[in-house]
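DM from R.C. (forwarded with permission)

"hey, sorry to bug you on a friday — could you get me a structure for this? deadline for the figure draft is monday and I only need the backbone to look sensible"
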Amino acid sequence: MKKLLGIMLVIALVAVSVVFIIRYFEVNSPYTFDIVIKSGTIYDGTLKDPYIADIGIKKDKIVAIGNLEDPAKKIIDANGLIVTPGFIDVHNHSDLTFKKSGLMRYMAYIDSSWKTNYNYLSQGVTTIVTQNCGWGFTNVNKWFSIIDSLRFGTNVYALVPHGAVRNELFGEENPQPLNAEQLELMKKKVEKEMQKGAMGIATGLEYAPGCMAITEEIIELAKVAKKYGGIYVSHIRDNTGQVLEDGEPGVIEALKEAIEIGKKADIPVHISHIQINAPWNNVTAQDLLNLIEEARKEGMNVTADAYPYNAGCTWINLLTPYQYRTSTGIREEYKTQQGRVELKKAVEHTFSYLHPDKVMINIYPENKSYEGKTLKEIADMEGKSPADLYVDIVCKSKTVPMCIFFDQKLEEVETIMPHEYIFTASDGWVLPENSDVPHPRCYGTFPRKIREYVLNKKLMTLKDAIRSMTSLPAEKFNMHLRGKINIGYYADIAVIDLNTIRDLATYKNPNQYSEGIVDLIANGVLSIENGKLTGKRGGRALKRF
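My reply, with the result:
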């Protein structure tokens, strides 16, 4: 026993000595700064004109800006380069990479591309907002514990995923509408997650089970988020121009519903990946922008995000109306002989305006031979009609495949992108290297916007583009001391070469990292140096408070 106590005393003394030595050298360090970024052209995340200056970083904060001559452990020469806040992706699904990987998620501790979130770091992204579209971990702390245990490469915020909570409480075949007791259970769960630091509540009203929720349910849940200073984020109920029974295009009615929820719950509203999907029926981007601008003129805090592509990516079951769908596939009653007849008729209607050659399967572990091919190509290969192929896939698959839908007009995407209330977002996810065939937005969103929309097409200024990726989302999502290059702010910083910044990912070959991010710092940690990963990770799980 005495021997054990002696050993423990020695260990304690060594630990105290190590702490003392570290603190001594910190106090007596010859270096004023840990990192100095020298002579870069600073775009600080606001509309302020760019200027040339040095940035001094100590630990995880920006501590000085100006002409800095004091010594630094590390000097980054940014002469001829631009320096911006690290980019913020407000619509990210990296949580699903972990949630749907099962035990394979433990590979993240080994796979450097996964734990560094390199497909986002290489875009200049230092912060992501997860649990969008109503999906994700129903326990925010569980998701945060994964991030912290990994020492993930980017900062991570989280929303309360409405659909996942509904499934957890009521099962896959859950009710419409909720009764008073069920609604109370939902409110208590949302409150519990907000208390843990979630930023707000996110719905996916185009998906099951979100599509089962009536407007009043969402208003009541949004009121709970509002009580904690949260926001309402929505993948709205319909993104198409399809005319509904009341004569209103679906996307217009859905956007009005989101604004109504914000108004009645008195909560800031953010619209996820705003777009117009086929059938378009003469609905324009300006129609959507007019609704947002009217709400903003009335004093509402309404914003949206968009990605710089005219194709989206989601599960194949979205090709049929909501009453046929569960969150992971098709309802059991439509897998019967009679149900399949009805299902086929429904998808044939979809194919009347979204042709099968505009739908490409990109992730389908159950049949890898289908990946990278359109439904038309696969149907021809199998000797079936596209509708019969679709019914066979959704009725037989354990998990339905993800598809890329070429269902947007590029000119409408370009109309949406430049406005000050439109943030940049990828709608993508973290990817272990060469793990599947994702949408190219997972690798290229932020550099693509700068290259295509600023430098090539000149649809917006560089100041505006950077602001849409930094200070505006940081302010909307209440990110404390992030999104700007200011003294006292966290050192999330990108050093970028405008001559080389570009996306390389394509629909057929998406697993290609972007170029042009020369150096990247997350919370004072240099994650990319001279265009290469350092292996150091500075990301954190971050709470609303």
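R.C.: lifesaver. The longest helix spans residues 2-27.
me: no worries. The chain has a mean pLDDT of 94.
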